[in-house]
Amino acid sequence: MSVTQPPITRELFNDVILPIYAPAQFVPVKGQGSRVWDQQGNEYIDFAGGIAVMALGHCHPVLVEALQKQSEQLWHLSNIYTNEPALRLAQKLTAATFADRVFFANSGAEANEAAFKLARYYATNKISPYKTKIIAFHHAFHGRTFFTVTVGGQPKYSDGFGPKPADIVHVPFNDLDAVKAVIDDHTCAIVVEPIQGEGGVTPATPEFLAGLRQLCDQYQALLVFDEVQTGMGRTGKLFAYEHSGVVPDILTTAKALGGGFPVSAMLTREDIAQVMTAGTHGTTFGGNPLACAVAEASLDIINDSQLLDGVEQRHHWFIKALEEINQRYHLFAAIRGQGLLIGAQLTPEYAGRLREIIQAAAEQGLLVLSAGSDVVRFTPSLIISEQDVQQGMAKLHQAIAQVMG
């Protein structure tokens, strides 16, 4: 007897998916470049980019070709064996960065989990068994595993799940004196985002990052850069640490690394990596051939001076358009960020209306994001066309006019 399947609609979400998300009422079914279409055929310009994931837009032909080619060769082996795509990708990542060694996983949270475990393992094995303190920052976001969500400085994500991992201290972001007040010989690591993404698109100052580097050197602690969101060209450099000249000991990246295919990486130096041995850490799917083949294609395209220079050009397109909107509506208290990670903070008068603005934008055919409770966030494709930027900003203008009445 055949069973009639229910229609695949937005309402089905409420019946079958764990109720931890509140997705939009429309269901996207197709994407190409910086445009998306839903089940009804409505078209949207995508300024969200899957939350900084779709660095090359939707269905980039080179990434599609890499996935199709690898899908006919080898999908999965586990880490009982290595594979050529993983080795090629690791070689290219180390050649392009400060790092000597790479660990592949599937998400930013997993890369950060590995980084935090490595920092503690290194400190307790090489220096002192009591060297376990991790210093992190208010409003940070590092993932949703219990360790990473606790290191993240937003209790709303970690409260309610029982006792939290211990020896994690949070201080204000961009406040070097606050770090100096809590760092000591028991500190194993300082964990920082070069730009706090979920926390409101707030850049770290160069002086702050340089001060963290000096403190880590002074106290034999490791400096960990979470570049899950800022990495892979998002800021106009392959990785954001290159802007400041401050080199971390451990770096994590994910999101745009696979251009939409789930993959992440933790990068570190040889001397730190050598503390780990077979079985100390691991993952079943991390470094699988499918993910690494796509990520290699993504890295090859993004790690190009012309593309990276284009990110800065596109930054100016966005800033100019946002400033023009603001001259008319006086909606934004600040417009900040770097490259194509941009946040427009609402004035106190409109701080409670962020959801309205995002909803109105969708109704006009534009996808944008939030960052915190009062920041409109833009993380589009790094190769978005000027026409798409102009048309998207016109839609944002219409949405704001709708909200303002």
If you had to describe this structure to a student in words, what would you say it looks like?
The protein is α/β, with parallel strands linked by helices and 405 residues long. It folds into two domains: 10-59 and 305-404, Aspartate Aminotransferase, domain 1 (Alpha-Beta Complex), CATH 3.90.1150; 74-302, Type I PLP-dependent aspartate aminotransferase-like (Major domain) (Aspartate Aminotransferase, domain 2). Helix content is 40%, strand content 18%. It has 15 helices and 17 strands. It has helices at residues 10-16, 49-52, 61-71, 84-96, 108-126, 146-151, 155-158, 176-182, 206-218, 241-244, 270-273, 289-302, 305-329, 354-364, 386-404; strands at residues 28-32, 35-38, 43-46, 101-105, 133-137, 168-171, 187-192, 195-196, 202-203, 222-226, 250-253, 264-268, 332-338, 341-346, 366-367, 369-370, 375-378. Strands 4-12-11-10-7-5-6 form a seven-stranded mixed beta sheet, with helices on both faces. The chain has a four-stranded mixed beta sheet with strand order 1-2-3-15. A four-stranded antiparallel beta sheet has the order 13-14-17-16. A hairpin with a 2-residue loop joins strand 13 (332-338) and strand 14 (341-346). The radius of gyration is 21 Å and the shape is globular. The relative contact order is 0.16.
